[in-house]
Specification:
This protein has 2 domains: 2-39 and 282-321, no CATH class; 56-259, no CATH class. It has 16 helices and no strands. It has helices at 2-14, 18-34, 36-39, 41-50, 57-70, 73-85, 91-107, 110-127, 132-143, 153-162, 166-194, 206-231, 237-255, 261-294, 297-308, 312-321.
């Protein structure tokens, strides 16, 4: 057990990709357990770890986000967010947060959020007088909302592996995601005067807010449709994700006319790369997870926690600390 732990943390410190770290540590553990004859089980465990139908939803959600981002919908979301909260001190930072919530409802991934707003909002914030570290920090904090607001790819993974209702996880993620946004906006407001953040000269009119809402309406409908269809039992997460891709293609290609065939190819390649990395981590984690289960390591960890305290809140705090 200690050999596997040393290899695991050693490879992480050396900078090896997480997927390979999990796989190598798991293979070493299996080999140490029974020699070469046990290594033949590794491919079977990797396949079993990915052989879950709900996992098909992940590439579809990622592709839908790529399409909406490439079609220029990100700009409309930012304009609508700016119309809502851009008049506050540090308005563009507030707009970044609100737009992150909206975009999270389309992609459900932190990487997509960071890529979308890192290329658009960070330069715009720097141009308005924000420091680049502050602009990057706000964008990074906003991207964390992505895995919390449905449709979250992490919730799809967790729900599929643990046998938990994905629809229930989606419903449970709405309030925490909104709270993260509000807390970040409160911090921005607190730093506003101390850092002398820029402030708009006047508030937008109701007409300008309505115009911005109308431009972004088709994008705002998508997360409502995804969550509603899943919660009311109209579609499974995989079906909702595939319909989301079709909707994004229609809106991005026919309404906004921001997608070409070359763009579609690049989006498919990027989606494949992101999905491949996620699936490699899941498959490799299946090897390490099987080894840990076989050696009853979860039971040993649980016994260690219970030896320190039997208070559920303390145990949860220790788990979060780990």
């Amino acid at each position: 057990m200690w050999l596997v732990a040393i290899i695991f943390f050693g490879l992480l410190i050396l900078g090896m990709p997480v997927g390979f770290v999990l796989g190598v540590a798991g293979m070493v553990g299996i080999f140490d357990m029974g020699g070469g004859r046990f290594l033949a089980m590794a491919p079977d465990r990797m396949f079993a770890g990915l052989d879950l139908f709900p996992f098909l939803a992940m590439p579809f959600f990622i592709l839908a986000g790529e399409i909406m981002n490439r079609s220029g919908i990100t700009t409309h979301l930012v304009e609508f967010a700016d119309a809502l909260v851009g008049w506050l001190r540090g308005g563009m930072a507030h707009s970044n947060m609100v737009a992150s919530v909206m975009f999270a409802g389309i992609t459900g991934a932190a990487t997509a959020d960071a890529a979308a707003f890192g290329n658009t909002l960070v330069p715009a914030m720097v141009k308005q007088g924000y420091t680049k570290p502050f602009a990057c920090a706000v964008t990074a904090a906003g991207s964390i909302i992505g895995p919390t607001i449905p449709p979250s790819t992490l919730m799809v993974i967790y729900g599929s592996i643990m046998g938990v209702s994905i629809a229930g996880l989606f419903a449970a993620g709405i309030v925490p995601g909104l709270l993260i946004c509000l807390i970040c906006m409160a911090v921005i407001a607190g730093l506003g005067r101390r850092l002398n953040l820029p402030k708009a000269d006047k508030r937008p009119s109701l007409r300008s807010i309505f115009v911005a809402f109308r431009k972004s309406f088709l994008a705002l409908v998508l997360p409502v449709f995804i969550l509603g269809s899943i919660l009311f039992g109209v579609a499974t997460p995989t079906e909702a994700a595939s319909i989301a891709v079709f909707y994004a293609l229609v809106v991005g290609g026919l309404v906004y006319r921001g997608i070409t065939m070359r763009d579609l190819y690049e989006m498919l390649v990027r989606t494949t790369r992101i999905t491949g990395v996620i699936f490699l981590i899941i498959a490799s984690a299946s090897i390490l997870g099987w080894w840990m289960t076989f050696n009853q390591i979860p039971q040993l960890i649980a016994a260690g926690f219970l030896a320190l305290s039997d208070n559920p809140k303390v145990i949860i705090a220790m788990i979060i600390g780990l």
